[in-house]
Amino acid sequence: MKRYRDIVILVTFAVVAGGALSGVYGMTREKIAAAAKLERTNALKAVLPTLSGEAQEVVLEHNGLKIPAILDGAKEAFQGAVLELETKKGYSGTIKFMVGVGKDRRVTGLYILAQNETPGLGTKAKDKAWWGQFLGKGQDNFKFKVKKDGGDADAITAATITSRAITDQTDIGLTALAAHLEKR
User: Fold this and answer.
1) Whole-prediction pTM value?
2) Is 99 left (phi over 0), alpha (psi -120 to 50) or beta?
3) Same domain for 105 and 177?
4) Are 133 and 127 in contact (CB under 8 A)?
5) 37 lies in the same domain as 53
6) From the first residue on, what is the mean pLDDT of each consecutive set of 10 residues in the chain (184 residues)?
7) SS3 67
8) Strand order in the sheet with 107-114
9) Is there a contact between 110 and 134 (Cβ–Cβ < 8 Å)?
10) Residue 114: in which H helix or E strand, if any?
11) What is the number of structural domains in the chain?
């Protein structure tokens, strides 16, 4: 009989806890969505301050990959782009970030949206002290690979995997953008 009582108590506790968690989620869902939207807006402004209200969302396709992007400027007058990049090759999994690209096809900014990298190591990718090396660089004057792989990018000390993931994905994004612009 005691065994059944323990099971009933455990099931009751699980139902109450699940209901409470569901209730809290329901109350905070809109606030979380608003905060995510605000962060995305701030990221867009940070990586490409010249982004106009007439920019259009597109999907760039490259070697089977689909890369969300925001292109600014009419067909003949490219003014810039924001690439919304994601890589699963981070040390601790997925890294989502934005890269701004000016009309000269050079990087104008980088903003990490989501990552689970090692605190104090891979998280340094968020610091301009690291990603600032990409500012003003394009594929014509910079190899977006870490130096260990024959590129020009300095890796974050003790976080080469994170550095490699971001630089490689940035290179893929810039290549996809260039291919898309050539087709226009």
Assistant:
1) 0.81
2) beta
3) yes
4) no
5) no
6) 81 87 86 86 91 91 92 84 93 92 96 82 80 95 94 85 92 95 84
7) strand
8) 56-62, 65-72, 80-90, 93-102, 107-114
9) yes
10) strand 107-114
11) 2
